[in-house]
DNA sequence: TTTTTATTGTATAATAATTATACAATAAAA
DNA sequence: TTTTATTGTATAATTATTATACAATAAAAA
């Protein structure tokens, strides 16, 4: 694989992805750790090919790490301060990894590419953690799900990017719920409520929550789910396919 | 002034500004017309210097055309389809203006710069039309306010950009009202209502509108305004300065 | 078989927010 | 004065949201 500086990318533009996943009352973010000495975490990111829509680039970057195709993606903000560059981070990385020689060769060229100022377009995605097998690429040492409340320290302004993505996710949740992929195919109302409570980090009153969600008219009621518990069995639901709504 | 291709700009990134102004129940957009044969209208746009925040670049581009300093600006969307370039428009312009020779010289270089693919960051601004004297720059033939419902045909996807800006403006209106600049220093409640009715393109019930706006707690009531009309004189208001709100 | 337990689904009461209506208070002309 | 065309405010009617009550029920315990 060619180095970024040799690819046909639009220069100084990057895409940062905040991949939200949900599992057992925890909202998580998929974050790779770089395969270098020193602890460097960075959001899944990439660049835009000359002939590629930015939405498609975001999708590609996501697929590389999650290998799922039908993904829900939303552009939420552009980060464009003049001070946004990887120099501080890269210099720190090089200091911790003296075997990397930056001299008159490819490395020098890559160093210059990476330490440019970048304007970054932020996208967030929602995926079902069970449907994703995180994929390490290139320079990843590991790639893991971190609870949104206990993220590792990240490079540059990546923590701020996650915070802004979370705000956008909350704003969009009701509107976009039928595009979601955070729950299994079939689920109970309780599971939906737990998802909401986790994303909003606050409790909802069960009876009113149920009414609110049903009035969104995006759920289809299926058979009951008998778990063996000594109480009334809840119904299972699934999201209507868009054409069925009405 | 140097040509864009010779400036220290970030390449393939542009900023498009939708400058909303309000006057006499009309929501208008400030749009320059290019100084070439053929009718070419394009949103005020510009590029980002290497050492310049994108917010600041947007502010600079706005000041060039309006010469006002304290401007309310909001980033609302990035337009990044791979097909976004000025080639179709420029070729049309050149066809209508045969005196422009594109050959092995500066023109050729400029042509190549302008026909690159551009990723454009959309900003919208709100200004008081009375406080603005539109400024022609460089290649402007004219610069005028057009009613948002009767915009001239614009190049590329600029109509779509305006539409998206209007949606964002409506969404943000209540929240951002104290940052606004669409009304004179002092105004009546009726004027505020007319502003809202114009922006939302729908009527509001007077009594309830008054209550709603007052409950936002951003207005300060001043003296009455005696116009000589044979009826009760309305109060004048002004926006509180932020520190006074509470 | 009946009772008990924990939970679910739905109804409805209480409260809050929104919208519609009524009406007194003007400023100036008739 | 009376009239006219507003404006400011109060309150009624309606709708939406939130709180509470309670019957239904799946399976274990009595």
Outline of this structure?
Two copies of one chain form a homodimer. By secondary structure, chain A is an alpha+beta fold.
Distance between the termini of chain A: 49 Å
How many whole angstroms does the radius of gyration of chain A measure? 21 Å
Low-pLDDT parts of chain A are none
Largest interface, Cβ cutoff 8 Å? A-B, 21 and 21 residues
Rough shape of chain A? Answer: elongated
Q: Major β-sheet of chain A, in short?
A: 6 strands, mixed
In the CATH hierarchy, what is the architecture of the largest domain in chain A at level 2? Alpha-Beta Complex
CATH superfamily of the largest domain in chain A: Nucleoside Triphosphate Pyrophosphohydrolase
Helix tally of chain A equals 6
Helix content of chain A: 25-40%
Structural class call of chain A reads: alpha+beta
The total count of strands of chain A amounts to: 9
Strand residues, percent of chain A? 25-35%
Order of helices and strands of chain A: EEEHEHHEEHEHHEE
The CATH topology of the largest domain in chain A turns out to be Nucleoside Triphosphate Pyrophosphohydrolase
Q: Return the CATH class of the largest domain in chain A.
A: Alpha Beta
Overall pLDDT of chain A, averaged?
90
Q: What do you see in this structure?
A:
Chain A has about 250 residues and is of the alpha+beta class. Chain A has two domains: about 5-180, Nucleoside Triphosphate Pyrophosphohydrolase; about 185-245, Arc Repressor Mutant, subunit A (Orthogonal Bundle). In chain A, about 30% of the residues lie in helices and about 30% in strands. Chain A contains six helices and nine strands; from the N terminus they run E-E-E-H-E-H-H-E-E-H-E-H-H-E-E. Chain A has helices at about 55-65, 85-95, 105-115, 160-175, 190-200, 205-215; strands at about 10-25, 25-35, 45-50, 70-80, 120-130, 140-145, 185-190, 220-225, 235-240. In chain A, the strands form two sheets. In chain A, strands 1, 2, 3, 4, 5 and 6 form a six-stranded mixed β-sheet that branches. In chain A, strands 7-9-8 form a three-stranded antiparallel β-sheet. In chain A, a hairpin with a 2-residue loop joins strand 1 and strand 2 (about 25-35). Chain A is elongated, with a radius of gyration of 21 Å. The mean pLDDT of chain A is about 90. The interface between A and B is medium-sized, with 21 and 21 residues. Chain A binds a DNA duplex (30 and 30 nucleotides) through helix 6.
